[in-house]
Amino acid sequence: MFGGGSLKSGGSLRSTARNSGDARATGGGVAISGVNHGDIHLFSAPAPATRSAYRQQVRRIAPRELLGRDRELAELAAFCTAVGGREYVWWQAPAWAGKSALLSWFVLNPPPGVRVVSFFITARFAGQSDRGAFVDAVLEQLAEVVGESLPTFLTDALKESHLLDLFERAAQVCQLTAMPTFLLDCPRYGPSSDTPTAPKHSRDPSPPLVDRPTL
């Protein structure tokens, strides 16, 4: 219960408060028990940088042990660390040849100094085989690369523009830090209506692999 306030001679405000009780605030608010004179300014703390959890998804795909792929892993590592090399390479192979096993292993065990942004198109897990899932997963990983948080309210209409922006800024970060970042995209089994024509730099290896354009 608040008492009345009155002006003293000299213009200062005198107030009394009785039985105001405890005050509690949640969600970054301010609680005052009693009387406050003056303005209260609330400032939100900056949002923490995004930390992607997509590697946990990759761990569900990766084998416990990868055997007989040393040559392919060495070729991937050489491609990722080459200076002035090709911008992309696309490996192809039939279904069940081991592309998910190879790529997931590589994502979890990249060469020193290389960061990998990945997305695996798979029907094994719900919601992991369409464009929206790709955009969401890659947005989170790129935000981690640039050390920023994603906007809190990001509509589907704006996600792709943010994705393109993060691609560009992640590439700049990689140039400044001399840490290459590569995007790997493992396709679904079998042909689909939106399967593109093989690009110039493609081959048909023993393990199937798709390595999408670098940042």
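The above is record 1. Record 2 follows with the same two-line structure.
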Amino acid sequence: MASDNSRFSTRQQGSGLSPGGAPVLPSRPSEVARPGIERPPGTSSPTAAHAGLPGEAPRRSETAQRTLIVGREIGLSGEITSCDRLVVEGSVQANLANCREIDIAESGLFKGSASIDEAEIRGRFEGTLIARKRLHIRSTGKVAATVSYAQIEIEAGGQLSGAIEVLSPGATAPAPRTGNSQGN
């Protein structure tokens, strides 16, 4: 009997159990740094914030920052409402409303309509895009859409094509004009 007990305790030590017998879970993919996705200034990694490490910013409450991340090789279709930030690393075909920011990674594709405050495009956007504050197309970004924006920045290599309209606060927006623009 003694040898059976010693084998059992050896298995426990190598099976992902803590010394107290509680299971030890591997880190979640959302806790791993995502290449190409920058965290907003003043936020820390979820792991550090969750662990309450000294010197780290406290974790935001669930209602303070509502972020939806569509990971690589994930497809999502439908309607997205009431998120603060949408991060697209995979493929999204949707209507996006009541969202403040969209961030499309190099591997990301968004097809549909989005009415947001700020957009940062490193991947592809196709459809209708209204950026009430700022549209930033990075060097790897491609936008083929009906676009309305207040401010725009296109890095060298970034591409914008479709109907384009500038939003002016307090003034009537000009009629959309069709054209192609490439940052070179």
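The helical segments are 2-13, 46-51.
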